[in-house]
Design goal:
heterodimer; A: mainly alpha; Four Helix Bundle (Hemerythrin (Met), subunit A); 6 helices; 76% helix; B: mainly alpha; Cytochrome Bc1 Complex, Chain D, domain 2; 2 domains; 8 helices; elongated
Chain lengths: 198, 219
């Protein structure tokens, strides 16, 4: 069918790009992945028999700052997609770079938080809170880390080849979907774990 | 361009840079409102509802505008909603399952308690026998005390109260004062694995029942 007629576009018979379709299917399954982790967190909520308890150690202002950083990375990401789609290569690269920096910044906050918690005596095995908190936010952090690597590979890729076809725009677009998804997961985690009082 | 199928709908989402930036500012402002809310001292229910509404707004804005679902193929929207709905159903089912309180179940309330059946110490599957001989007449949190013990305490004190991590809890092994055991159950033993059950919501009356159970009822 479409195979062989185009080098760059991989439309399915559905009329959508293969890579985007694949990414959306993947994200739909990721909903279940994080849904399970969030459920576990909620089930364990208030069940810890020993401290530290969430109220003792969660730092809401600091996490609001890291949430802000991640939100802004979504903005730079969407501007990178915009640059790619409108053939503005410089803008795309700059915005990809900014997104990578903000993503690394978010991870920095998380590393600081994890180390701080370990310091005050909360780790994976301390209590139900520790177990479900670290697994949930740890897997989210892992997703951010993978996203950063993904964007770095795109940035390097865009430096090697010249020109900016529709194909490149689609790669950036697809990476953007992943990145924004990781952001919305954090929107939920931030509310459920940090903002809602126990 | 080269592809015919895409000619009938927009190549790019019609959003401009300016609009994207405004959306970003809106998202940041919502986050600030959320932060303020969490310190506002509003009543629990109201605060939680507002927080959920605001985060749902952020969620939808990012998905619709940044992930372009508003402008993209409907197929993607359906796929995502499908995954999201499954995840929500999973969340509701799991939480309902773990919060299920059998004493409030319609079926249990009307049915007479089952007659004494199999051995009482078979893992607390909810089918332990009835009758004072195994403490079935005494209730803790609306549950026969033997059941409560086997689901809550037996992990450390043994299904037959023979002692595992914690010591044996049988009339023969407990020679001390009831008040001591009451205090141990209520406040735990700091520095040991014995938790403070008073802090987990176990009432004094329930603790009394547990003390009577472990000091008078043979396993």
């Amino acid at each position: 069918m479409a195979a062989g007629t185009h080098e760059v576009e991989h439309h399915t018979s559905l009329g959508v790009d293969n890579r985007k379709l694949l990414m959306w299917i993947f994200l739909a399954s990721e909903c279940l992945f994080f849904g399970t982790l969030i459920s576990t967190y909620l089930i364990f909520k208030g069940q810890s028999l020993v401290g530290p308890y969430p109220d003792d150690i969660l730092d809401i202002p600091l996490t609001s700052l890291s949430t802000f950083v991640l939100l802004m990375s979504s903005l730079t990401m969407v501007l990178a997609v915009y640059g790619a789609q409108h053939g503005r290569l410089g803008m795309m690269k700059a915005m990809l770079f900014a997104t990578i920096l903000l993503g690394v910044g978010f991870l920095g906050f998380q590393v600081y938080e994890f180390r701080h918690f370990a310091h005050v005596g909360l780790n994976l095995g301390t209590n139900q809170f520790g177990a479900s908190f670290f697994v949930l936010t740890g897997f989210h952090g892992l997703h951010v880390g993978i996203g950063v690597a993904y964007l770095i590979s795109l940035l390097f890729g865009s430096m090697r080849r010249s020109g900016l076809g529709k194909d490149r725009a689609l790669w950036v677009d697809t990476a953007g979907l992943y990145w924004h998804f990781v952001d919305i997961v954090w929107i939920v985690v931030f509310t459920v774990v940090y903002l809602i009082p126990s | 361009m080269e592809h015919q199928a895409s000619a009938h709908h927009d190549e790019h989402p019609p959003t401009t840079i300016r609009e994207y930036v405004i959306i970003g500012v809106v998202l940041a402002v919502i986050t600030l409102i959320e932060l303020w809310l969490s310190y506002s001292g509003l009543s629990h229910g109201l605060m939680i509802s507002l927080l959920l509404i605001f985060s749902a707004m952020k969620f939808i804005i990012v998905v619709a505008m940044f992930m372009h679902l508003r402008f993209d193929s409907r197929l993607f929207t359906r796929l995502f909603i499908f995954g999201f709905a499954l995840a929500s159903a999973l969340l509701i089912a799991l939480i309902a399952m773990f919060n299920f309180d059998e004493t409030r179940s319609l079926f249990q309330a009307s049915a007479p308690p089952p007659a004494a059946t199999a051995a009482p110490q078979d893992g607390g599957d909810g089918d332990n026998g009835e009758g004072p001989a195994d403490g079935g007449a005494l209730l803790v949190k609306g549950q026969p005390v033997a059941e409560y013990f086997s689901s809550t305490c037996a992990g450390c004190h043994g299904q037959n109260r023979e002692g595992v991590v914690g010591p044996a809890l049988t009339p023969a092994s407990l020679a001390g004062d009831d008040a001591l055991y009451f205090d141990t159950i209520k406040n735990g033993r700091p520095g040991t694995a014995m938790p403070a059950w008073g802090a987990t919501g176990l009432s004094d009356a329930d603790i009394d029942v547990l003390v009577t159970f472990i000091t008078t009822v043979e396993p």
